[in-house]
Design goal:
The protein has about 400 residues and is α/β, with parallel strands linked by helices. It has two domains: about 200 residues, 3-Layer(aba) Sandwich (Rossmann fold); about 110 residues, OmpA-like domain (60s Ribosomal Protein L30, Chain: A), CATH 3.30.1330.60. It is built from ten helices and 14 strands. Strand 8, helix 6 and strand 9 form a beta-alpha-beta unit. It is globular, with a radius of gyration of 27 Å.
Length: about 400
């Protein structure tokens, strides 16, 4: 009889332990099928984006049955799979972070580079650990540096629980806004339901003046995530109003587009555009201006795609020549700046030569600091003056 009672108690204990283990199993998000935007109905609202991801210790806390870190990664992954295939430049920076990531309190693990879904997903999968406090302000300052050579509109997306950030993130967000002005909007995605974290994330988004704060719980579904992505990244192409048919006038002469760039001759400000060149609304070739760090002459990865497009156009137009004009800001001596400007012109030329364009089609010239395009009294102005311009011509 004693043995039977002992066996019964053992069975009850094992059942209790198994039930406890089952209760602790991690809940997973429901399967996600990303919305597919019709690219003929939308156009990019921004040119660049950076995701600033919270990997601090508080992200180890459980929320909705899983670590907040895993929940945040899933939300960003869903956003990544929803972003349509437009030409964006993207970046991913973490803060807090554990030993599985480089750096002390913040590190950039992707970009700023030509965005691809696969590239961002691979970087996101590196975030597997947490650590440290929540140096969100430090990460925002670093992100401002990441974006210094970005051209066009920018979206900064901050993902985290907003806990224990202090006041520095708001000041850092205001500093970022001041740096980029109307080009920048700030968006925050709250992980969890901490009231203080929610207030912090709302204040940070408010500092951007044109963004908003979202709760991750509200954007998990395909439709809600599509709505979020549309608000941050896209704008609808306006529908053209259909004009009523004319009564009975003769058919008008068909507008001509002699150079085939999509701009009719009567509105074409550059009537001899090379074959295959992307043009602006005036029909002129959109050529990159390559910017450089202080006293440097190396090409940032950000410009590789644009320079590759230049190489493609030159291969299609064998009668096309190109001069590279190098410039510096006002710092440094005359002789030093002259050599630096010539090197900046030559490095861009060598890039295109490596893409298969004959050296005889190129020439370089350095102007040192004699031809600024902006004031040398501000950091922003000096950044614009450290450049190489591309000037095409025909044989």
């Amino acid at each position: 009889m004693a043995r039977k009672k002992l066996n019964a108690m053992f069975f009850i204990l094992i059942s209790f332990l198994l039930a406890g283990c089952a209760a602790q199993q991690v809940q997973t998000q429901a399967p996600f099928s990303p919305h597919k935007f019709k690219t003929d109905q939308y156009q990019p609202k921004v040119d660049n984006f950076i995701i600033i991801f919270d990997a601090s210790t508080s992200m180890m806390d459980k929320y909705n049955g899983q670590r907040k870190l895993d929940y945040a990664r899933d939300i960003v992954s869903r956003m990544n799979r929803t972003i349509p295939d437009f030409k964006f430049a993207g970046a991913l920076r973490t803060f807090g972070q554990g030993k599985c990531l480089p750096g002390d309190s913040t590190s950039k693990i992707y970009g700023l580079t030509a965005y691809s879904e696969e590239g961002l997903e691979q970087a996101l999968n590196k975030i597997k650990c947490v650590g440290g406090i929540t140096p969100m302000g430090t990460a925002l300052d670093a992100a401002t540096g990441d974006l210094k050579q970005a051209q066009g509109k920018i979206a900064a997306i901050i993902v985290g629980d907003g806990k224990d950030t202090g006041t520095s993130p708001v000041a850092a967000a205001e500093k970022m806004k001041k740096q980029f002005g109307d080009r920048l909007c700030i968006y925050t995605v709250l992980i969890g339901n901490d009231p203080g974290g929610k207030a912090n994330m709302e204040q940070i988004a408010k500092a951007g003046q044109c963004g908003f704060s979202a709760n991750a719980d509200k954007i998990t579904s395909s439709g809600d995530m599509a709505n979020f992505v549309e608000k941050v990244f896209l704008t609808k192409v306006p529908k053209k109003a259909e004009a009523p048919p004319p009564a009975a006038p003769p058919a008008p002469a068909k507008p001509k587009d002699a150079d085939g760039d999509g701009i009719f001759d009567d509105a074409d400000g550059c009537p001899n555009t090379p074959v295959g060149a992307r043009v602006d609304r005036n029909g002129c070739w959109i050529l990159p201006t390559v910017l450089f760090d202080t006293d440097k002459s190396n090409i940032d990865d950000f410009y590789h795609l644009a320079l590759y497009e230049v190489a493609v156009v030159m291969k299609k137009n064998p009668d096309l020549k190109m001069q590279f004009q190098g410039h510096t800001d006002s710092r440094g001596g005359t002789k030093h700046n002259q050599v630096l400007s010539e090197n900046r012109a030559k490095i861009v030329m060598e890039y295109l030569i490596k893409k298969g364009i004959g050296r005889e089609r190129f020439s370089t010239i350095g102007y040192a600091s004699t031809s600024p395009v902006a004031s040398n009294l501000t950091d922003e102005g000096m950044t614009k003056n450290r450049r190489t311009e591309l000037v095409p011509s025909r044989y």
